[in-house]
């Protein structure tokens, strides 16, 4: 009996559930689909015109006339001009210790004086020996002197001449050494090769300056240029710096994978200053559209042309893009109403959503 009751209740529950589901389906079928309202749009009419597109980049101020000053000798630093000093071309900016060079120069000059004294003495001896030899030759003609004496005097004359040549050779060596020492003395007085400002100092008084080691960097007031490093996909047509347009020249080099360019500019900024510039990526005649007028979908670019009720997609090719917008050469869209909206709205219109022009 209990078993029959349980079966009957289960059947009733199942039948009730089926009836409830059928009623729910009828109710859903009777519901009307939600009303789709058209999207209110803004449009523009593009025209062919001359314009530029730019991208913001960083430029580094450089100078071809800035110099680094070093020394050619090893010596202790005695005096230095401070950083920030204005210097003229040829002005003394540093002094190095020259005491050892001066001491050696004095010794060489003393040696040179001694050699000149020896040379004069040898020349006097040679003159006297030549006179004596001439007299001996006359005496030998009347048998007043021997042949042995005559030959000995010839040997002595030859020795004196050799000694004179040796002394002269030593004199030339000492003269060359004096010239070298005088050059070294000049190197102990360091002068500015250009007019400018001492921008950096790498040694202090008391330090030892080594050959080739930089002592100063001097920034000049001459022409400067901007160094730019740009990725491969950016081909600059110029730059805008302080509201002026400047040409750009490739340096045919790279830095960390970036191509290097230079642009000669007029600026009073210090070397190695970093400045914001506008890189001109397009300059010419084309159709200019805002970024929000172009839809990117599946690797293609589209503009949406406004019709009466719906938008019509038109494939376009972007020539260049910048912060101001994009450049196109599709003349078939000139004068047509191009929809401008955010990407999600453009995507809805691309899918067939109705449009309504704004008043």
Explain what the structure shows.
The protein is α+β, with helices and mostly antiparallel strands and 359 residues long. Among the domains are: 1-31; 39-49 and 286-357, conserved putative lor/sdh protein from methanococcus maripaludis s2 fold, CATH 2.40.420; 98-187. Helices cover 34% and strands 37% of the residues. The protein is built from four helices and 23 strands. The chain has helices at 2-30, 99-141, 147-187, 343-350; strands spanning 39-44, 48-63, 67-70, 75-80, 86-87, 92-96, 189-191, 196-201, 208-209, 214-220, 224-230, 238-241, 244-246, 249-255, 258-265, 274-289, 295-297, 300-306, 311-316, 318-322, 325-328, 338-340, 355-357. Strands 2, 11, 12, 13, 14, 15, 16, 20 and 21 form a nine-stranded antiparallel beta sheet that branches. Strands 3-10-8-5 form a four-stranded antiparallel beta sheet, with no helix packed on it. It has a four-stranded antiparallel beta sheet with strand order 7-6-4-9. The longest helix has 43 residues, at 99-141. The two termini are 79 Å apart. The relative contact order is 0.20.
């Amino acid at each position: 009996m209990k078993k029959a009751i349980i079966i009957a209740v289960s059947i009733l529950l199942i039948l009730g559930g089926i009836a409830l589901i059928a009623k729910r389906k009828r109710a859903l079928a009777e519901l009307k689909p939600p009303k789709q309202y058209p999207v209110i749009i803004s449009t523009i009419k593009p025209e062919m015109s001359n314009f530029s597109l730019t991208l913001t980049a960083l430029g580094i101020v450089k100078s071809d006339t800035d110099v680094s000053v070093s020394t050619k000798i090893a010596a202790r630093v005695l005096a230095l001009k401070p950083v920030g000093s204005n210097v003229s071309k040829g002005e003394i900016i540093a002094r190095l210790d020259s005491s050892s060079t001066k001491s050696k120069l004095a010794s060489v000059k003393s040696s040179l004086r001694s050699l000149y004294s020896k040379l004069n003495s040898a020349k006097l001896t040679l003159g006297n020996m030549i006179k004596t030899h001439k007299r001996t030759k006359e005496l030998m003609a009347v048998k007043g002197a021997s042949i042995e004496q005559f030959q000995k005097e010839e040997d002595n004359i030859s020795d004196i001449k050799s000694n004179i040549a040796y002394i002269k050779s030593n004199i030339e060596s000492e003269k060359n050494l004096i010239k070298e020492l005088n050059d070294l003395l000049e190197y102990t007085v360091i002068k500015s090769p250009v007019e400018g400002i001492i921008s950096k100092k790498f040694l202090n008084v008391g330090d030892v300056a080594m050959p080739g080691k930089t002592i100063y960097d001097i920034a000049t007031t001459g022409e400067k240029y901007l160094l730019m490093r740009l990725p491969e996909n950016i081909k600059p047509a110029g730059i805008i710096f302080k509201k002026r347009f400047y040409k750009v020249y490739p340096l045919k080099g790279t830095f960390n994978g970036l191509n290097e360019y230079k642009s000669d500019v007029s600026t009073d900024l210090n070397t190695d200053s970093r400045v914001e510039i506008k890189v001109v990526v397009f300059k010419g005649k084309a159709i200019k559209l805002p970024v929000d007028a172009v839809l990117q979908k599946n690797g293609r670019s589209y503009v949406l042309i406004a019709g009466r009720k719906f938008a019509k997609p038109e494939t376009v090719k972007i020539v260049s893009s910048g912060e101001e917008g994009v450049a196109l050469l599709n003349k078939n869209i000139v004068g047509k109403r191009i929809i401008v909206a955010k990407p999600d709205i453009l995507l809805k219109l691309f899918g067939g959503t109705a449009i309504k022009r704004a008043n």
